[in-house]
Amino acid sequence: MRRPLVAGNWKMYKNAQQAGELARAIVAQVGQGRGAVDVVVCPPFTSLQAVGEALAGTGIALGAQNMHWENEGAFTGEVSPEMILTTGCTYVILGHSERRQYFAETDEQVNRKLKAALRAGLAPIVCVGETLEQREAGRIEDVVLGQVQAALQGLSEAELLKIALAYEPVWAIGTGRTATPAQAEEVHSLIRSCLRQHYGAGVADALRLQYGGSVKPENAAELFAQQNIDGGLIGGAALKADSFAAIVKAAC
Ligand code: PGA
Question: Ligand 1 pocket, 243 CB below 6 A?
Fold first, then answer.
């Protein structure tokens, strides 16, 4: 059985003080009631320290939303795996569609970041997903499975087992237009078959596949009940403690 993973992606919201407050409210509401679910919150870099302090000893993990693949160097504006580790991060989101779309992040860069995250001992959440245009052109499979294979290139089985993949259809992110449970499950099942074919049943059965894109308390339970959906990557609804706690509960 795969342990569900529910992660909050706070994107570019919350200064350090607001982030600390939100983290404390999440701790209070998610509390002990999360059963066998892994819970992570991913604030902006500038709030990692404050949120890390609020989460200490609670069992809720801290994650970053991005990182560079080098540990140090002349890379103005970038943050390294080592730097996020020292704030207490154990997770990192990589290849989010907003990074691909607005910051021109490529599959090759996602692969480099993924390898660097694994070397640093971070647990990566790697995002994949098609745009509406690609979906309508019948290219879901080639786009999503292409992103999966490019991201995972050159990894050992032991490394693959440390990763979670988040399927986030770009047309569902922040739009209020959630994929139906059947639409999400269809792609999750394709991803799992692709993993089975390329990396074997051990990896395919163990790797967690999160769904992301307008997950809300009202639709979370039905999405998470699908056979190949192992939790979610939550944007907007992760910015309020009560809705995030309700989504975590739906995964229990
Ligand atoms: P959303 O974002 O829940 O606001 O759609 C999800 C994400 O971008 O990870």
Answer: no
